[in-house]
């Protein structure tokens, strides 16, 4: 009996010891996972901002050395010469840049697309490349695609060059048209936004005062005349100064214009007035319009596709009255040695961006 009691007490003690060891082991495991103050540096994690989540935030970036990226603001100033790279996030991206790069099909500019971003590279940039660079996300619905206005990013890039304070232009004498109740811009843009710029009239020589209301200056545009009038006509130039250096811009001819907008106003004239068989004739289709408005002419005439004719199209600026300038566009159709087939209706169609005008004259033989 005593032996059985002693065996039972021994087994109970063994179980209690095992339980105590397990509890001790659990406490030790818990203690090993505990972070002790000062034993480990905690790294803060910031929330990821999605594209377009912050209004006005630009995802247009510049690629620097060793692949580093910097996010661009509304304006950026950099030096010319070194390759200039811009990157825009997205798998469908559109770009815009100074228009002359497209006009001259400049091989220095290239754009490459990938699944995650699009990259614009400009080799050997110069002061002439100063301007607005923009990218945007393209959204497509079936076959129709459009720009996402909420994810369009623009930065005006200044390629600062002390030898070219003004953005160079291929035109050495530009015409600026002044219209009533419509702002006009003298486009003397600079390559350094810190340059001090002034506007000058050539004859009589005088500086035009900028007052931040009627005449203002924007380095990305030039001088803006809010309400131009006849008194602003003449030859002007801009002067830029920075760090003891001063330069003169190209010259600008400011012309005042008062021509109503609309379809072409057309006149049709035949010379000579009286036509006989064997004569040579000129049919002149003339349009008076805005100086910047291109006019396209087309003809319908009796002997069309049956005999050769000559057409000559030209235009010139014409002063009409005091301080008014308009554009005279002409198309002259010439027929030599008139034959019977050439008599009949001559139709001139003149078309501009506002519409089309058709005029008709009937040529009959005066034998």
TrEMBL record:
Pfam families for the chain: Ig_3, VEGFR-1-like_Ig-like
Record's subcellular location: Secreted
GO molecular function: identical protein binding
Ig-like domain residues: 264-365
Record keyword Secreted present: yes
UniProt main location, coarse: secreted
Keywords: Disulfide bond, Glycoprotein, Immunoglobulin domain, Repeat, Secreted, Signal
Cellular component, GO annotation: extracellular region
UniProt key word Aminoacyl-tRNA synthetase: no
InterPro entries: Ig-like_dom, Ig-like_dom_sf, Ig-like_fold, Ig_sub, Ig_sub2, PDGFRL
Secretion signal, residue range per the UniProt entry: 1-21
PANTHER family in UniProt: PLATELET-DERIVED GROWTH FACTOR RECEPTOR LIKE, PLATELET-DERIVED GROWTH FACTOR RECEPTOR-LIKE PROTEIN
Oligomer status and interactors: Forms a complex composed of PDGFRL, TNK2 and GRB2.
Name of the protein in its database record: Platelet-derived growth factor receptor-like protein
Organism: Tetraodon nigroviridis
Lineage: Eukaryota, Metazoa, Chordata, Craniata, Vertebrata
């Amino acid at each position: 009996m005593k032996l059985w009691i002693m065996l039972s007490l021994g087994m109970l003690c063994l179980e209690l010891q095992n339980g105590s060891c397990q509890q001790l082991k659990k406490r030790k495991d818990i203690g090993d996972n505990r972070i002790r103050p000062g034993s480990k540096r905690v790294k803060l994690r910031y929330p990821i901002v999605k594209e377009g989540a912050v209004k006005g935030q630009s995802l247009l970036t510049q690629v620097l050395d060793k692949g580093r990226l910097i996010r661009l603001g509304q304006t950026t100033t950099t030096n010319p010469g070194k390759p200039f790279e811009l990157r825009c996030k997205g798998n469908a991206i559109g770009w815009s840049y100074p228009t002359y790069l497209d006009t001259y099909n400049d091989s220095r500019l290239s754009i490459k697309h990938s699944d995650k971003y699009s990259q614009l590279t400009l080799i050997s940039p110069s002061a002439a490349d100063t301007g607005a660079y923009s990218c945007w996300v393209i959204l497509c619905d079936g076959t129709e695609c459009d720009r996402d206005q909420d994810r369009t990013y623009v930065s005006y890039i200044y390629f600062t060059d002390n030898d070219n304070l003004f953005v160079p232009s291929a035109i050495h004498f530009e015409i600026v048209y002044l219209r009533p109740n419509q702002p006009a811009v003298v486009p003397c843009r600079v390559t350094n936004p810190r340059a001090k710029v002034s506007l000058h009239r050539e004859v009589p020589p005088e500086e035009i005062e900028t007052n931040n209301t009627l005449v203002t200056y924007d380095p990305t545009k030039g001088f803006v005349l809010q309400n131009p009038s006849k008194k602003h006509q003449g030859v002007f130039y801009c002067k830029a100064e920075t760090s003891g250096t001063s330069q003169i811009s190209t010259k600008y001819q400011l012309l005042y214009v008062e021509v109503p907008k609309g379809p072409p106003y057309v006149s049709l004239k035949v010379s000579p007035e009286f036509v006989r068989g064997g004569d040579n004739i000129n049919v002149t289709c003339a349009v008076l319009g805005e100086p910047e408005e291109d006019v396209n002419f087309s003809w319908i005439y009796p002997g069309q596709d049956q005999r050769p004719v000559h057409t000559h199209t030209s235009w010139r600026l014409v002063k009409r009255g005091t301080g008014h300038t308009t554009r005279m566009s002409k198309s002259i159709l010439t027929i030599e040695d008139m034959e019977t087939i050439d008599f009949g209706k001559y139709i001139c169609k003149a078309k501009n961006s506002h519409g089309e005008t058709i005029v008709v004259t009937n040529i009959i033989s005066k034998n």
